[in-house]
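Regression report. Comparing outputs from two consecutive submissions.

Submission 1:
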Amino acid sequence: YQEGLKKGKRVLSAYWDVYRKTWSKNSKAEYAIRDVHLGKIKLRGRIDRIDFLPDGGTHVVDYKFKKPGARDEKQYRQLTFYKLLIDRGTSWRMKSGEINFLEADVRTGQFKTQLYAPSEAEVKSLEVEIKRVTAEILDLKFFTQGCREKKCRYCNLALIRSNEGVV
């Protein structure tokens, strides 16, 4: 705990010193969006920061307390989900988003930001996937389908259980 606290103070102090004067004052932090419905599916999420742009759109900032890495499909999917929440659950519209890494790059000492702009088509595709996966979960298809990863220990466990007649 003490080690983590010490690291957190060091990392966040450095980040604060670099960015504190650039942050928008027209923003909301730790903003919760609840009760977004896709049919009977209820979605919700908490967004680290929403900046309100002069043209009426919004820009989302998600903070990652880790060292910067390459662009990541999971991070893009997360921002696409935030666009779904904002566009379907508020009167605002998300135009863009970014991932802010709170730990500086060890080689350069610079903080890294990755910018993304999920499209409406990507949001619609995500909605379809959420509905499909939800239906599969409710139908317990994961017991017979698996995730199709060759060495997934959970899928192998399901196979063992089904061979024993437990499933």
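Submission 2:
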Amino acid sequence: VIHHHGFWTSVFATTGRIVGMYNIASSLFFEEQSVSTEDDEHSAVDGDYLTAALGSGTVVLVKNHGAVVVGESLAVATIKALMLEKAAHYHIEAERIGGTELGENETRRLKEAFHQYFLPEMWAAHMRRVRRSDPELFAEVSAAAPF
């Protein structure tokens, strides 16, 4: 579970809507998003309220706050949180110029491909990048570490 306040995600969360399918990266979140808003009885960030809002999805946009992203592993949740930030940015910019969303069939096809190919490879790609850019970060980690 990752709770984050990425700039674009937080800006978009002010709308109280889910992120639209304006870019192929957005397909990761197709039919997996919900919104949590504050009302007279609940705080938008109350744990039980967030859990109920999440349901079987993987993303809860918390109005005027940020987002909660869940995944079957830390790696998947992290990549999804990073991609949600990009998807929110794409949505804001595309909507500003009158862009249109992907069609449902294309979005479903892309979602399947992203889950099959993109998610498993992105964690490894980011870890390779960090190892190159900051090798001393891993100086204390044994060679047997899973990442």
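Expected: both submissions complete independently.
Actual: both completed, but the second showed a warning that disappeared on reload.
Relevant detail on submission 2: The helical segments are 7-13, 47-54, 74-96, 104-133.
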